[in-house]
Amino acid sequence: MVLQAAAPSESLMPLPAKMTLAEGRLAIGPDFGIAITGFSDDRLRAAAARLRVRIVHQTGLPLLPQFNAAPALTIACRGAGPAVPALGEDESYTLDVTAESARLSAPTVTGALRGMATFAQLVAPGPDGYAVPALHIEDSPRFAWRGLMIDAARHWMPVGVIERNLEAMAAVKLNVFHWHLSDDQGFRVESKVFPLLHQKGSDGLFYTQDQIRHIVAFARDRGIRVVPEFDIPGHTTAWLAAYPEIGSAPGPYKIERAWGIFEPVLDPTRDETYAFLGKLFAEIIPLFPDEYFHIGGDEVVDKQWKANSRIQEFGARNNLATGHDLQAYFNKRVLQLVTRNGRKMVGWDEILRPDLPTDIVVHSWRGQASLAEGASKGYRGILSYGYYLDHLRPAAVHYANDPLSGKAASLSAAESARILGGEACMWSEYVTAENVDSRIWPRTAAIAERLWSSRDVTDPASMYTRMRAVSLNLEATGIQHRAYTARNLERLSGGVRTAELAVLANAVEANRLDLLRRRRFTSRVPLNRLVDSVPPESESIRALEETARNAASSAAARAELRAMFTRWRDNDPVLRPVLQSSFLLREVAPISENLASAGAIGLAALGYIERGEKPFAGWLDAQKAALAEIEKPCAELTLAAPRPVRMLVELAASK
Ligand code: ACM
Prior knowledge:
- By secondary structure, the protein is α/β, with parallel strands linked by helices.
- 43% of the residues lie in helices and 15% in strands.
- It starts with 7 loop residues before the first helix and ends with a helix.
């Protein structure tokens, strides 16, 4: 079989704004070199060096500098652009590839970075070696704010996790890293002014100020803004474990170990609270050069405010009757502190109140409606509703979620322009530093495309083809979403029958609703089981569904299905002893049995189809009922195998 280079339309994600293909291919061999003409600086030279390393990882070519006789890629950059990545900076680029050479032109270094990300995705094996197809691309983003939020508070995310996710973000042209740095379960930044915050509020798991500066510089190198979030006035138990005096109830407080919405909340009525926040912000905000500072503001419980007579009297005196009024008052005073440090305020959509100035940014987690409401009142906004990775939804669901859909579809052009983009959100209740890559990727690539590519790029089949290509390609950036899965299967199996465990793992999907029902989770519950290493949608079952679509007409498709169904049927007897002997795997033994049943049903259906025989009366209903039964969630997993099997059962019965 000849390895074919994928067409660019099958390897690029996000798809460029404009692309025309030409004849021929530029060979990428050991003498591949990069030349920088025009403007150059450290950031651009470092990016070119990283591109070489990336190509080495993708191809195994020995790209030693001394081999670079004639550079194949010329980067012509016209200027630096902003010193620190900034909202709305020019990210455009043009890429021209011929059989002889490639030329990347960009007005800014950030534009050149985006073009290099495209170039890396185009390098693919062809009949005669690695090559990039000849083409012309003109590209720029649809939305200026394209983010990924990582929650480093609930489960600690070490520096290495952040670095490799930034690398992967750059590969799909995301440009905002929203760093959720404090919550009930942890305050994750070193404070020299209020050291108890990280000493008592983090279990010793916090970023030093040097590490913060390092990450900000690392992100800047990749054209990524860093927007820190310190969530106030709710979600502050870890703060209050250190400084109970700024709370609304006397305490004492302990770091929260469970997940949920909790009562501890800052006292919005005392000047001491604002003096504290003022000093803390003066220390912490300068660590983050971005123009925007996120104050959280979500899920404030007003129970402590209601129970505190002094706070109630303050409310009565100042015409602040409800918890919402008190929070609005709090936000106005916090806004002064943020502004004093030269930053614009961002907050979750609960902060939207008419008395805040319109240069704040509303971050919607509750729907396009609050985004649209904000935009119609003059506020800029970003969308995360529909982009929650922890909900474990298929990529297609996120992909179909356009920031300008729903209530936002009827906005005027001027109002729509206030919608800056969106952010994928990786809340970390159910992920650890170990498996977080595999929850973020590859689905975030689909969200990145939604935010970069033009609005009419919506075909899910094309998206899945390209997301798979990009998923494989992303591993060359150092992200470990696929490697982790393989590693965890070996850990689970102890190296015994790992291939058979992989057959099972490839046929199941993580099921969040079942997960939430099954166990009482806290930060002490290990996330080391099968559910924690399988994605919410199975790539191999998706491929099998494609094959099943051709079953009526293609003998090859039927042979492929037969091979897989046979494998499923015969997998369980071999795997069962391994499952039974491990406390980690015993819970999935029923699923393995169900997989065998799915295989047997599929083989029976194939038999009818191939014999051209009509199944007996009642067969279809019986098979459908059996498939529905084995599809029921178990061990926080859903067996996905029944989906292609059901297609065949229906085909068999339709004869
Ligand atoms: C949120 O999900 N509470 C922002």
